[in-house]
Every structure is written in C-alpha cells, then in structure tokens.
Amino acid sequence: MTLRLPSPDGSLRPYEPGPAPAPGVHAGGPLTSRTVFSAAHVVADPYADVSADDPAAVDWDATLASRRHLWQQGLGVAEAMDTAQRGMGLDWPNAAELIRRSAAEARAVGGRIAAGAGTDQLASGTLDEIRAAYEEQLALVEDAGAQAILMASRALAAAARGPEDYLTLYGHLLRQAREPVILHWLGPMFDPALAGYWGSADLDAATETFLQVIAAHPDKVDGIKISLLDADREIAVRRRLPAGVRCYTGDDFNYPELIAGDAQGFSHALLGIFDPLAPLASRAVRALDTGDVRGFRDVLDPTVELSRHLFQRPTRFYKTGVVFLAWLAGHQEHFAMVGGHQSSRSLPHLARAYELADGLGLFPDPERAARRMRALLDVYGVPR
What we know:
42% helix
C-alpha cells in the first residue's frame, strides 16, 4: 500500500509503509535501574452525544486497557496528569473517577501508580480556597492508594502575590501528606496559565523558591518532575537536590541523555511521550538495567525526532498526537478525544507523526496502521 501524505506546503508525497512490527510486550520483572512512569492518555467515548463544552465522556474499559498495556511493559502509570487532558477536556469529577478506577486496577494487576492532585475544581479562588481544593484532591489520591503528584495550579499562579505564598501553601500540603509526594513544575509551554509559577517570571528566582520548598521538607518529597524542556536547568536542579530526593525528567525533548545521566547523577522519568513509546522505553531501560548505556541510547535516541514533532509549539496540543498514535497502534478503535481535541493538530502534522512512528516500528500491525491512516486521508479528501 502506497499512501500519499500531505506536507506543510500543501504538496503530496508518496510513502510506502514499513513492514517492521512493534516490539512485543516484555516479560520479566520490573525495571530496576530507573523508576519510569508514563503519563497516560484517556480514551473518549465516541458514541456519547456531547459537545466540546460538556463534561468529558470517557470510555472506561478502553482507558483502563491502555493502563494495563503500560504496566505490562514494566512502566508505572502517572494518572490524571496533563497527558490525560487534565484541564483541557477532562474535568475534576472525571479525573477523580479516573484516579479511583486506575488505582483499583493497579492493585489488581500489581502495577505502580501515581496520580495528580491539583486545584482544577476551582476556576479561581483565594489562597484559603486553593489550599482546601488541594487538600480535597490530595486526600482522594491517597485514599485511592496512589502516590500523590502535587500538580501546578492555575488558580495559585493567578492568586499568589509572590514566593512566600508558594512556600506557605506547599509547606502546609507537604506537612499533611501521608507519604512522600512528587512535586511537578509544569512550564508555560505546556500551559500558558502557569507562567510565573513559584512567584517569579525569572526562572532563576523561581528555581530558588522551588528548591526552598524541597529543602524545608525533604522527608515528604519523593521526587520532582520538571517539565521545562530545558536540559541544562534540569541537570543544575538535579545536582542540588537533597539526598534521597529523585529527579523525574519531564523533558520530552532531551529524555535519553537525562535518563542516561552523567558522573554526577541521572534522572528517572515521568513522561507523556512514553505513552506511545512504551515498548521502546521498556526495551531501552532494560538495557540500562544491565549497564548497557550504549544499548539504551541506541533504542531511545532515534525516538527523539518523533517526540519533538509531537511536542512542537503549541506544545499543549501534543495530546492529539499521542491519541492519534494509540489509534493507529490498535490500542483504541477510534480517533476521538474528550473536548474534541482530535482537531487540534493539522493533517500534515499527523501525517508526519505517522511516518516517524512507522519508521520506528511502533505499530504492532503495520497494515492496520496504514489502513487507518488511509481512512483519515480519505476523510480529509486526499486523493489516492
């Protein structure tokens, strides 16, 4: 089958799909050299009669099946995070249900799970209201049996008057957390409403406040997830963490080098790109488990072009590519997203994502992926 794929300049180019199938599910125990979470997407219910402004309609069975796929590869699941369209189609009631269901499924299959606690039940609020919203979500995550990830808050970014408000609020939350949490610094490229987080638009000043929060409560911080797409800053922060506090890279541009590390340390991983890359991520880290750094890089380095393509600006729409690849790979039966976000990327963007993923051998059934790609091209009126 030869496909005619659209390019950004409007021209069509012939593409011959590759024959190589994706690597199979890896048997064996958990990953040992790094703690690796994949932030996971949600599967919409395509038959629900909802509009983009309505609460999300989730296909729970397909969504949980996608989590089992990640656990089978040895990856942990980071639930109800940005990749799950948190705040971009997935509201708090659905996120709460997602956390409960996924945590129960994790217990049933022995999978590792962490889940996001934020303040998205509020559009805005006072600092007291924001603290109460965080407390509600933190309690739900912990009661469900998941490790808590304290997510960045749009409401806090709007209400905070400076670094002291962050120090006070995060200090309160960390003191009451039952178990060590993961702190998440999500940059404005992922969510423009988070500009100036930690009390300053100056990243050096913001970094100092972030590190103060951790230094004041090192026993309550399992690790930090930095999603700034800035490898040098992540390495600098990583080297200043208290003993026992991990760095989980959230850098979808530079993850191979950050996970591999250097003589002074390395990053663990909590990445949205590991949702479509799960088989390759598992294969790579298993090589690292044996001390084979070169083998690790040989598997992951070629994936960076795809990741940078999916996460290109506007970065927050990377979720469209993640769900698109899940459909092509056969992990779900449709290309629909909560909030109608399947339309958030252009056809040329999706065509290039298909081409790159196919070149990596990411599709368990390349012929099915090609048929689905052709069906999408037909919908857009691309001539055969």
